[in-house]
Amino acid sequence: MFTCRGSNFKKRMSHMIVEMNDVFRANDALGIVESECGKRVVILPPDCGQPVILEDIAAAIWYSIDAVNTVEEIARSFASEYGIDIAIVRWQIQEFIQQLLEFNITVKI
After folding, report:
1. How many structural domains compose the chain?
2. Residues of the chain with pLDDT under 70
3. Other C-beta atoms within 10 Å of 39: how many?
4. What is the pTM of this model?
């Protein structure tokens, strides 16, 4: 869903399992640039020498990670909006948030 390239990149190993009732927010140490249309977000994580680029659906999920919505609420919203099976959406959003945790982009509340 996104890329993080560069020789300075250090992936943080997260042993946290993303549960459906979990709530997440952005790491306070991020540098973030957003496009005016909201379809692209460029993030500079504290542990990555290169930017992480989120586009389209990944950017939309990013905007839903707001310290308010649970993973389940985000999944239901996207399943409804795009007409996709909720089980598939749950799994994909859990995996995406797990990647964000590993890159130190999000934190669990």
Report:
1. 1
2. 1-15, 48
3. 14
4. 0.83
